[in-house]
Specification:
Helix content: 40-55%
Shape: globular
CATH superfamily: NAD(P)-binding Rossmann-like Domain
Largest sheet: 7 strands, parallel
CATH topology: Rossmann fold
Order of helices and strands: HEHEHEHEHEHEHHHEH
Number of helices: 10
Distance between the termini: 38 Å
Number of strands: 7
Structural class: alpha/beta
CATH class: Alpha Beta
Strand order of the largest sheet: 3-2-1-4-5-6-7
Number of domains: 1
Strand content: 15-25%
Mean pLDDT: 91
Low-confidence stretches: none
Radius of gyration: 18 Å
């Protein structure tokens, strides 16, 4: 028999990460910040990193973060130094840093193409290596990918190639790091400050298009992704998989 959630079940869900420590790489805004918020509600202590010191400090004050560190996640030396200085154990690492590189393989500058093809893959490898002896099983690493870019389209060859490669790497890392769990969230359009910076004046038009065409009839928000991320952390049966969250965008695009 099913019905509305009881107060006890709701309270249990809200404390499902009680006593655990979450590291959010890219936790000062957008999906990372929202995931940190939800983890705090679920009872976790949070450690935040980000590139912007002022924004990071603001997020840390809001969430009473246990620790912060300002650095670029794609700076491999800084990333490794950060993990080396962490006092174990930690339970989960969420990585939201990085963004797809859009552009035609025939036109994009070669160095930018190289970054677009390797940046997220190398970041995942760097995090896995650095966190391997810090995360206590059955803790997890959760990475962000791109669902929308997986389908090849003109001008998206670099982003599509990277998007297709990342799930394979995540599955491999899940085997190599077991019993630590590794999962990937592949998002479509999410209404974040990053999306706003990319689309500029076209943002409202894109929102309207998605509200009219997506099966869910609304735009996916950081809170939606954060809910999935916390579920991947708390459900210890989940590893090595890619979870799409796009409001059904792939069904109608």
């Amino acid at each position: 028999m099913t019905g509305a959630p009881t107060e006890a079940s709701t309270a249990q869900r809200e404390r499902e990460l009680l006593g655990q420590t979450i590291v959010v790489i890219g936790g000062s805004s957008g999906i990372g910040l929202e995931t940190a918020r939800r983890a705090r509600v679920a009872g976790a202590s949070v450690i935040l990193t980000g590139r912007n010191p002022a924004r990071l400090e603001e997020a840390a004050l809001e969430l009473a973060a246990a620790k912060t560190a300002a650095f670029d996640a794609n700076d491999a030396a800084a990333l490794r130094s950060f993990f080396r200085d962490l006092s174990p154990p930690i339970d989960h690492v969420m990585v939201t840093a990085g963004a797809p590189h859009y552009g035609s393989p025939l036109e994009i500058p070669l160095e930018e193409a190289r970054s677009g093809l390797t940046e997220r893959l190398l970041l995942a490898i760097d995090v896995a290596r650095a966190a391997a002896d810090k995360v206590r099983p059955p803790g997890s690493l959760v990475f962000m990918g791109d669902a929308g870019a997986r389908r090849p389209r003109p001008g998206l060859g670099i982003a599509s190639t990277a998007a297709v490669a990342l799930p394979t790497l995540i599955a491999s890392l899940a085997l190599d790091l077991a019993p630590i769990r590794v999962n990937l969230i592949a998002a479509g359009f999410v209404d974040t400050p990053l999306s706003a910076s990319i689309l500029g004046h076209d943002l409202d038009k894109r929102r309207a298009e998605l509200r009219a065409t997506l099966p869910i009839r609304r735009v996916v928000t950081p809170a939606d992704v954060a809910a999935l991320a916390v579920h991947l952390m708390s459900n210890t049966a989940l590893t090595g998989a890619t979870y799409d969250i796009d409001g059904g965008q792939q069904l109608v695009s």
